[in-house]
Amino acid sequence: MTALPKPQLIMSRTRTTPVGSGLPGARRIRTTRNDRPYHYMVHSPHFAYEEYAIHLGQYDRLSFYGPAGARPVTVHLYDCRADSPEYDRKLEVDVPADGSCVLAVPPGYAHWFEHLGGVTTRNDYSLHAPADPATPWNPLDDNATHPVEEMRRSRPAVTANTTELPSAAQFLVAKAVSRSWRGGATEQGVVATAEIAGERRRYFIDRDLTGDRPELPVSELATVTVEAGSYQSIRDDSYGIGANVGNGLADTMVCDLSDAWPLDFSAHPHLTLKLSPLLYDNPEVELQLVDRRADSPTFGAAQVLPFPRDPRAVVTVAPGVLLRARGAGTLHYRVEYEVHDARSGLPELFVPVPGDALPPTFEAPGRTLPEDVVRELAYQ
Fold first, then answer.
1. Could you report the per-residue pLDDT of 284-304, keeping only the tens digit for each?
2. CA-CA distance, 142 to 282, in Å (whole number)?
3. What does residue 273 show for φ and ψ, rounded to 5 degrees?
4. Alpha-carbon distance 185 to 139, whole Å?
5. Alpha-carbon distance 110 to 102, whole Å?
6. Taking a C-beta distance cutoff of 8 angstroms, is the pair 208, 184 a contact?
7. pLDDT band at residue 60 using 50, 70 and 90 as cut-offs
């Protein structure tokens, strides 16, 4: 019999970005090779879990991010796999809230968290199907919950899935979820009933109908947009944050900003960037943007744009825009990106541009590279 996987802690990798790499001096925290899907959970300061969760096919890989001085997240685990030699074993682990560790939780382990208020979780998960194809399993509904007090009295016995799905299938499922969250969705959704041509029908409407929408600044540049991204509203004013790019690529970034503008801008001739704040309470930050894309109707225009403080917001910066940031405090943010082909030679990702120099002009890039190609190259 093949040994069943156990929970484990994995060290993440941190790399400081040089001048010209978007926000100079930012720390890129790599928790994955971007070969599996991800989502974030942004927790309000008063958020608290009241239940254990068990996934049959979702293999969680969790990293945690909080403000400076945030206490570790305590994770309680029970092995609920009926065929495990350690069935009913209880584990408890404290995971730092600085992104330095990834906690892997295999399918079939019940898990519950403490001290998540104000902390954002990133989950780089994989999906596993049942060994027997005849066993029913729905990857879009794989989250059984059990109250904490109930779990203390007795543990369920489950059969965990063991066959990992191909990467293309995993990203397809993740893409379906992200699309269903586009522009805002609710945790349970709304069931509506309507009578059409004498026939009564029921509809499931999974949209954010509460009226609680993020406040967004207005961009004056044709090459920069600000909008609500892919998110799901959950209880206690908290949010699940999904991918806004089809390739599923995203980096977690941390940057210590000052009130002064950096000496250099960065330009990204062949990247479309999507930037989002990551913590529930983010510092005030401004972006200075200069449109230098030759085919843009606002070529040459500049704007200082308040960076949204709401993690549901997404700032999309097209190729050929100069960018730099200033603020008061430490900014945790997510950067998603699409890579465009170059009309000649290799694509240029980031180019430093001195703030006192004559700004360059950038031609329009080519089409975006295929999703699987970009994922393959992302961490080479």
1. 999 999 999 999 999 999 999
2. 32
3. -105, 140
4. 18
5. 17
6. yes
7. very high
Tokens 């393959």, located at residue = 376
Q: What was the pLDDT predicted at 197? A: 60
- Which of the 8 DSSP states describes residue 277? E
User: Which tokens belong to 150?
Assistant: 């109930």
49 has pLDDT over 90: yes
Q: 192, exposed or middle or buried, with CB in 10 Å at 0-12, 13-18, 19+?
A: exposed
Q: What are phi and psi of 374, to 5 degrees?
A: -65, -40
Q: Please give the structure tokens belonging to residue 211.
A: 């009226």
Sheet holding 264-267, edge to edge: 302-307, 285-291, 321-327, 264-267, 351-354
- What is the Cα–Cα distance from 81 to 65, expressed in whole angstroms? 30
Q: Are the C-beta atoms of residues 290 and 221 closer than 8 Å to each other?
A: no
**pLDDT range class, residue 333, cuts 50, 70, 90:** very high
Can you tell me whether residue 95 is helix, strand or coil? strand
Work out the average pLDDT over 136-161: 95
Alpha carbon distance 351, 265 (integer Å): 8
pLDDT in tens, 191-221: 455 665 666 665 545 555 556 789 999 999 9
Per-state percent for the chain, helix, strand, coil, to nearest 5:
5, 45, 50
Mean residue pLDDT across the chain: 91
Question: 143 and 240 in contact (C-beta within 8 Å)?
Answer: no
Q: What is the CA radius of gyration of the chain?
A: 22
Residue of 322, 332, 213 whose CA lies nearest to 269: 322
Token pair listed for 207: 């949209």
Q: Are strands 120-124 and 58-65 parallel, antiparallel or unpaired?
A: antiparallel
Which tokens belong to 312?
A: 């549901």
Q: Is the pLDDT of residue 279 over 70?
A: yes
Checking phi first, is residue 298 left (phi over 0); if not, alpha (psi -120 to 50) or beta? alpha
Beta strands in 149-216 (DSSP E): 163-164, 185-186, 190-196, 199-205
pLDDT score for 110: 98
